[in-house]
Amino acid sequence: MSKKLHFLPCLPWDLAALEAWANSLAREGRELRRISRALPFLALSAEGPGGSYTLVEPRKAAEGAGCCRVPWVYACVAPGRRAGKYPMGGARRRALNLLAGMALIVYAALVLTTGDTARGLAWLAGEGEIPAVPGLLSALNGILAVISALSVSVCLALTVRVRYNRACLAAFALSFVSLWLWLALRAAMLVQPLI
């Protein structure tokens, strides 16, 4: 079975577009297997049966049998025809809760990196008296925290206005990637003095 990694063409909470995309995969002879929880803009598909797929609540989905959970929005892509309209408002509300939680984490990241960022930027300007590795890590950590804050803010604003476009998807992906990189650099900064 050949597996393939996909960049989602839509936001995970744009359920109508996600359902249409899952059906286009089915027409190509592929089935959606998994959407990553840590990077929810990446999906894995494999060769599978054709047919049609619909979005349902997880409790209404048959266990196993080609079901794929959509992380953070309480939905499953399941084989079968549409039995009723999925409540789109609930997915949007859960997406707003996710983005608000991410905004709080990013705010904490900004607070944690304020002092380190100032030292890192001073090191980049040639005014700092700290070693090269901690200076570079501090500067990168601050830059990633600012990128995360901006991208989460853009994604939150576009989601509130129900504008599920490529800019919102790019901001969503950028916010997750920059937040994970920020966490990795923060861990490296904590471990680096021990080496």
Any overview of this molecule?
By secondary structure, the protein is α+β, with helices and mostly antiparallel strands. The protein contains four helices and six strands, in the order E-H-E-E-E-E-E-H-H-H. It has helices at residues 15-27, 88-124, 132-160, 166-191; strands at 3-7, 30-35, 42-47, 53-56, 68-70, 75-79. Helix 2 runs antiparallel to helix 3 (132-160) and helix 3 packs antiparallel against helix 4. The radius of gyration is 20 Å and the shape is elongated.
Strands of the widest sheet, in order across it, are 1-3-2
Number of E strands: 6
The proportion of strand residues reads 5-15%
Shape: elongated
Count of separate DSSP helical elements: 4
Cα-to-Cα separation, first versus last residue: 44 Å
Kindly state the mean pLDDT as a whole number? 78
Low-pLDDT runs: none
Helix fraction, binned, reads 40-55%
Radius of gyration: 20 Å
Order of helices and strands: EHEEEEEHHH
The main β sheet shows up as:
3 strands, antiparallel
SSE class: alpha+beta
